[in-house]
Specification:
Blueprint lengths: L11 H90 L2 E4 L5 E4 L1
Antiparallel strand pairs: 1-2
Amino acid sequence: MVKREGGVQPTGECLTVLESQMAQLLADNRQFREGQVKANTYHRHINQKLDWLMMDTARVVDSDEEEEGIEREETKDGEEEEQEQEKDQGGEEEEEEEEELAPKKARSVKGKERAVE
């Protein structure tokens, strides 16, 4: 027998198998594409959420830095006030030392003043 160049014509049974395989490949391909669409949608939503979280974090960090800047200014102002108060207290301490030298007076139970050492 001499083989022809075109090959052998497929039988009906072989065609059925090929058609079945083709249908399965098309179904698999459709499921794959649907899965890709779902995955892409999921990834897009995740990326949007991540972007939102990053922007929110940046906003919070910026507001914290602004608050720290305000607190630093308040702290500087507070430190200056404390230094002024310490200077004022230094003068008050001298007055207290003078008062300590003088005898202190206290009221007795009956309401009379008496000297206390």
